[in-house]
Amino acid sequence: MSGISLSLNLSGLRKEDGDEAMERDLIIIGGGPAGFTAGLYAGRAQLRPLVMVGQAFGGQAATTSEMENYPGFPDGIGGMALAEQMANHAVRFGAEIAYEEVTSVDLKTYPFVVKTYSGTYHAKAIIICTGTRPRYLGVPGESKFVGRGVSLCATCDGYFYQDKTVVVVGGGDSALDEGLYLTRSAKQVIIVHRRDQLRAGPILQQRAMANSKIRFVWNTVVDEILGDNTVTGVRVHNVVTHEESIINADGVFVYIGLTPNTHLFKGQLDLTPDGYIITDKRQRTSVPGVYAAGDVQDPYFRQVVVAAGAGAAAAIEAERWLAEKEYEAQEAAMEREVAVEHEEQEVS
Ligand code: NAP
């Protein structure tokens, strides 16, 4: 992280069960745009939210080099810079941020149980903002070269390909956006797409087509990543002609879509067949008191601004639900008190 000072109030320093720090009104799992916006709203609502960011500060958005469609930034803003601003904003209003990875959740007991490597937390409400992770191709050679020529992040690794040739796999917004980013360092970017039409939006298509460093290879899928110590190319075949060939390249960037991070919630929350959390219009999941926001429940828009909005909505809902629960508990306590008084009067 750089540029913006992130004055994190790191929580979780005390790790004993029963510690106040481990008993929470609200835990937000995930530190991307949805999680930080939920943290901001919940902080302002005095819920003392704990945002658990795991190892992926900023989520997928933070791996985007330049974001041109987040309102209020007409000149664009880097994904990581935006994530840092959002985190700072949430912290300023009382959110705590913990670099803790959640290892399990129990949504069948109440208060809900959230376990991390360093302790067990209890939460009266939870907002899940765990986002998505990029998918790998799953072809021979890929796992061998991850981090040594195969990458899922042009912003992180593009610098290593000065004047080199790279292959980008995919035809969506990510492939074109990141392919364009790679032209800053690479001498050639070869985009290999399995169809002859791109899924990416028109602006990115125009820019990529107009960039002399970008070449498209259509109707083609990657069968193997080739190399010895480092990547030397990819073996591909054309899905129309079935012709096999080799494309020489120094690196391969894979952008073939996303998988939701929902393994912790399987069997506890209703999920779509693709694994996304099912929410209603008020970000409620199938378990009362558990909300979800951002890409983890949105296979349609997957935009930072939409995720941030959903995070705000989830926090507003959680605050109302907690207030209602508190009110019901007070009413029940008062009714019990009146009943006891009544009994005492009858005895005397
Ligand atoms: P995506 O839109 O799902 O596109 C994935 C691409 O990979 C598609 O072109 C798909 O081909 C191809 N693909 C899928 N499986 C493949 C396989 N096994 N082998 C080869 N190719 C495969 O994913 P994304 O580009 O990561 O975008 C994710 C979301 O983020 C989208 O909603 C996107 O709009 C958003 N996003 C927006 C921006 C922006 O606004 N600037 C930037 C980045 C991402 P087919 O087309 O044939 O299905």
If you had to describe this structure to a student in words, what would you say it looks like?
With about 350 residues, the protein is of the alpha/beta class. It has two domains: about 20-135 and about 260-335, 3-Layer(bba) Sandwich (FAD/NAD(P)-binding domain); about 150-255, FAD/NAD(P)-binding domain, CATH 3.50.50.60. It has seven helices and 17 strands. The chain has helices at about 35-45, 80-90, 140-145, 155, 175-180, 200-210, 305-345, and strands at about 25-30, 50, 95-100, 100-105, 110-115, 120-130, 130-135, 150, 165-170, 190, 215, 220-225, 230-240, 245-250, 250-255, 260, 290. The strands form four sheets. Strands 1, 2, 3, 4, 5, 6 and 17 form a seven-stranded mixed sheet that branches. A five-stranded parallel sheet has the order 8-15-9-10-11. Strands 12-13-14 form a three-stranded antiparallel sheet, with no helix packed on it. α2 (about 80-90) links the parallel β2 (about 50) and β3 (about 95-100). α1 packs parallel to α2 (about 80-90) and α1 runs parallel beside α7 (about 305-345). The chain is elongated, with a radius of gyration of 24 Å. The N and C termini lie far apart (about 70 Å). The structure holds NADP nicotinamide-adenine-dinucleotide phosphate. NADP nicotinamide-adenine-dinucleotide phosphate (NAP) binds near residues 171, 173 and 255.
